[in-house]
Amino acid sequence: xxxxxxxxxxxxxxxxxxxxxxxxxxxxxxxxxxxxxxxxPFAPLDHRTLDxxxxxxxxxxxxxxxxxxxxxxxxxxxxxxAQRGDTGPHIVSVGxxxxxxxxxxxxxxxxxxxxxxxxxxxxxxxxxxxxxLTDEIEPRLKRWAARxxxxxxxxxxxxxxxxxxxxxxxxxxxxxEEKVLERYELLYEAGLAAEAKRDGREAVKFxxxxxQLGRPMQFDHRRVLATAMSRLRGKLKYRPVIFELLPDSFxxxxxxxxxxxxxxxxxxxxxxxxxxxxxxxxxxxxxVSRQTGGRPAKLFRFxxxxxxxxxxxxxxxxxxxx
Amino acid sequence: xxxxxxxxxxxxxxxxxxxxxxxxxxxxxxxxxxxxxxxxPFAPLDHRTLDxxxxxxxxxxxxxxxxxxxxxxxxxxxxxxAQRGDTGPHIVSVGxxxxxxxxxxxxxxxxxxxxxxxxxxxxxxxxxxxxxLTDEIEPRLKRWAARxxxxxxxxxxxxxxxxxxxxxxxxxxxxxEEKVLERYELLYEAGLAAEAKRDGREAVKFxxxxxQLGRPMQFDHRRVLATAMSRLRGKLKYRPVIFELLPDSFxxxxxxxxxxxxxxxxxxxxxxxxxxxxxxxxxxxxxVSRQTGGRPAKLFRFxxxxxxxxxxxxxxxxxxxx
DNA sequence: GTCTATATGCTCTAATTGAGTATATAGGAG
DNA sequence: CTCCTATATACTCAATTAGAGCATATAGAC
Lengths: 322, 322
Known about the structure:
By secondary structure, chain A is α+β, with helices and mostly antiparallel strands. Chain A has three domains: 7-116 and 219-234, Alpha-Beta Complex (Nucleoside Triphosphate Pyrophosphohydrolase); 121-206, no CATH class; 248-308, Winged helix-like DNA-binding domain superfamily/Winged helix DNA-binding domain (Arc Repressor Mutant, subunit A), CATH 1.10.10. Chain A has helices at residues 50-62, 131-146, 160-168, 180-189, 194-198, 221-235, 252-263, 269-278, and strands spanning 7-19, 22-29, 35-36, 39-41, 68-75, 90-99, 111-115, 249-251, 282-289, 297-302. In chain A, the strands form two sheets. In chain A, strands 1, 2, 3, 4, 5, 6 and 7 form a seven-stranded mixed β-sheet that branches. A three-stranded antiparallel β-sheet of chain A has the order 8-10-9.
């Protein structure tokens, strides 16, 4: 079972920012074609807490001083770090989400912004249902669902078909934008993620030809990324985290565009204004922006003191027409 | 800095059940007066995933086969495991929440049910504001807030007074039932939790006499417990997890009592019925229960298939009159 | 001045929520 | 058997919120 020399804790950061209306994450490209998140092992002698360890690694690798940071999940599965071979220590990876405003383009260390939807292209519904779903994913998932659940050791009592319905909105069900992780994991389990092939998963043998379904990542980093997207999409609706992605002053439409970029779908403009304004999340700065091409838009700033008020609402709101 | 021999990952389970209208957790009492959660180190050679490791430890220590299990958070702080001394490996602890229906009284291994509110007594508002808040906690926290924030290395820019307002509803603010962890951590930081004294925290010196504010626990287990309560109280409102605590059939009032036990406050009965019923979460079994002392109550069962429907609502609902 | 594009304001309806009143049906006291 | 009490269950009503769309305001371009 390979030389087992102990446990290592890996700290991984999905550092999210929005540029040109597109959500981006900070990745390091190491030349072997597999992008990676900023990553480093937890060293308890140097790092008083996990968070501090993460911040240190990110500072070291990207020159960035993180602000908003949130722990996501700890993954300990065997077999998700196949590149390392069987010899190293077992790696337990702790995923983090960080949100930044500034554009780290100038940062050292070879880290750069990459489009988030490049890794999970089926998650962007802003221009309607992504073609990759209809053309590539759905037909293959249907074939997968038609197979018996032999090698499934899933503890849920759901059939593959039911899981497709829930995760991928297959039989008339609604698309749940928050199920990002469940979708990625299902694709991995079905052998349709490149990482599954790398890790030597059995299900891959079923496919004669594997399309590239989103850019893969090193280790289990795409899983961390999917977890980050799930969490952020959910949290948006009940905590005012979105402002961690915005500059000090912004128009309401800029705010809306950023929310849409994260959620991956369009919102109803007038209702969005109403919601944000009478949730008391923002206050006008008094200035206007004339960059809009029409009537100048009032500039707003985030009211930091809402963090002191009770169940600070965040930006809920269901989808609107395209 | 003590002999550092590596990292160990501890798996801790807050196993919750409701008995006689009181939420309980499974604890092991080891005789030294410090209760502990079922606990064991993650052994990657034996456990394919963290979850499996946790289930194994719980089975071994309590004879219980867990159903619903959910990972909570991973804590890596130095200095929260003081009993172990400085010599052992650094311990990173992964907390889990598990929900059970059956009463594990007969289980082997010395584990037993203990009242959840015995550890966090300020969280039970079902009979009005707990006296321990007014009599013990609030006056001391006010004294603590009056001190300068010298040794605070908190990354938030909130003053102690603002934090009290938010966490403990001090200056007319509302009590947020979900801030269980924040409250416990604040008490720890203020030196008011017995664990803070055990861990040699500086703030403890400020107090001449420390009252027992809830029963303490071994290691950072009370923190895990507080995290579990936070998570469960939050999740209740948007996922139908509550049914993991209920028998197969139940009356709506029994359901309500269990929700109230978890949330720690009363709900409006008629509205609760309406909500649960037209969320489609339950269906009548056809039988009735005559145990109620009045008109017999219809028995219901959880509609397992709502898990297949979209954003399965759970049991939201704000508080009602006492 | 008109056209176009965007920002912002307002209306209308349907649900949802919070609170309370009214009715139904058991067991027990007399 | 009847009344009383306790609980379950049904229904009402006002306030708020959410989804959708129409209307008006104000810039730059021609």
